[in-house]
Specification:
It is an enzyme of class 2 (transferase). Its main location: cytoplasm. Catalyzes the phosphorylation of D-fructose 6-phosphate to fructose 1,6-bisphosphate by ATP, the first committing step of glycolysis. Keywords: Allosteric enzyme, ATP-binding, Cytoplasm, Glycolysis, Kinase, Magnesium, Metal-binding, Nucleotide-binding, Transferase. It is a single chain. The protein has eleven helices and eleven strands. By secondary structure, the protein is of the alpha/beta class. It has two domains: 182 residues, Rossmann fold; 112 residues, Rossmann fold (3-Layer(aba) Sandwich). It has a seven-stranded mixed sheet, sandwiched between helices. Strands 7-8-6-9 form a four-stranded parallel sheet, with helices on both faces. A hairpin with a 2-residue loop joins strand 10 and strand 11. The longest helix has 22 residues. The structure holds 6-O-phosphono-beta-D-fructofuranose. The site of 6-O-phosphono-beta-D-fructofuranose has 10 residues, from loops.
Length: 319
């Protein structure tokens, strides 16, 4: 293989730049031309593509976002869009593509592979919702952003003697809520994977107050519902002033943590290795300390495995 390309797709995630850097540099190291596709699958359809060199990825390892920009492409879902993309790939002589993104992006990668272009997926999403891999690029940075917010909100929560509900991202997955909630010492963690009862949350709040606790932090995963509505309900039921904070896109930005940079560097390089071995239709992941790769269909069929043990621990530690 002499010419490959890389794109980022779906929601951005801190560490995507480190992954792009790893793809470009390890490709060039192996005498392969690396093309950058801008704005995800839309850039492929519209031939928004340029060749990268060593300097194109200088000074980006520490930056959040993605220098390639990203998109959730509706057009690539259509046959017409796929036909246009394939035409661009053939005209430019691209022999393999690395797709950095989440499950939707992996479906796009799968489609390209079905069209005859070997593709490798690299998991880049803050949600950590891909069951085949222990971690996705961006998750660690995101939970660090959330715990920073929890600490700040806890200060003012204590000063005012309020309860605070903090709504975090994650789509249908409760991993951000769980891990940030544990690390941030939250009183309650509400996730889509485990049923909850608002009266139990209220009782815990009141019990804490009765023993002199001044603050109360409730972490709510967005997949369960809205923080504003829940704060009203809790305030009505307990009589404790309750405020809602929706952290939103702040969780997707910022300089990636060391863990995310290291994970992204390893995964980006592994994706290039696989393409150069002539392998396609696979995704890269991590199992414990070991990098793994797996068939895309198999990977997508593995449901995200919620860590009940850690959830129970968080409950015990917040009695
Ligand atoms: O998948 C990443 C994510 O940030 C989810 O946690 C969230 O539900 C979604 O993307 C938000 O998407 P958008 O930025 O398009 O509003």
């Amino acid at each position: 293989m002499k010419k490959i390309a890389v794109l980022t797709s779906g929601g951005d995630a801190p560490g995507m730049n480190a992954a792009i850097r790893a793809v470009v540099r390890s490709g060039i190291y192996n005498d392969v031309k690396v093309m950058a596709i801008k704005q995800g699958f839309n850039g492929l359809i519209n031939a928004n593509i340029e060749e990268m060199n060593l300097s194109s990825v200088a000074d980006i390892i520490h930056r959040g976002g993605t220098i390639l920009r990203t998109a959730r492409s509706e057009e690539f879902r259509t046959e017409e869009g796929q036909r246009k993309a394939l035409n661009v790939i053939n005209v430019l002589g691209i022999e393999g593509i690395i797709v950095i993104g989440g499950d939707g992006s992996f479906k796009g990668a799968k489609k390209l592979n079905d069209l005859g272009i070997p593709t490798i997926g690299v998991p880049g999403t803050i949600d950590n919702d891909l069951g085949y891999t222990d971690y996705t690029i961006g998750f660690d940075t995101s939970i660090n952003t959330v715990i920073d917010a929890i600490s700040k909100i806890r200060d003012t929560s204590t000063s005012h003697g309020r309860a605070n509900i903090i709504e975090v991202m994650g789509r249908h997955c409760g991993d951000i809520a769980l891990m940030a909630g544990l690390a941030g010492g939250a009183e309650s963690i509400i996730v889509p994977e485990v049923g909850f009862n608002v009266d139990q949350v209220c009782n815990k709040l009141l019990k804490g107050r009765n023993r002199g606790k001044l603050h109360s932090i409730i972490i709510l995963a967005e997949g369960v519902g809205g923080a504003v509505e829940m704060s009203k309900e809790i305030e009505d039921k307990t009589g404790i002033e309750t405020r809602a904070t929706i952290l939103g896109h702040i969780q997707r930005g910022g300089s990636p943590t060391a863990s995310d940079r290291i994970l992204a560097s390893k995964m980006g390089a592994k994706a290039v290795d696989l393409l150069l071995q002539g392998v396609g239709n696979r995704v890269v992941g991590v199992n414990g300390k070991k990098l793994i790769d797996m068939d895309i269909d198999e990977a997508l069929s593995i449901k995200s495995n919620f860590d009940m043990e850690t959830y129970e621990l968080a409950k015990i530690l917040s009695i």
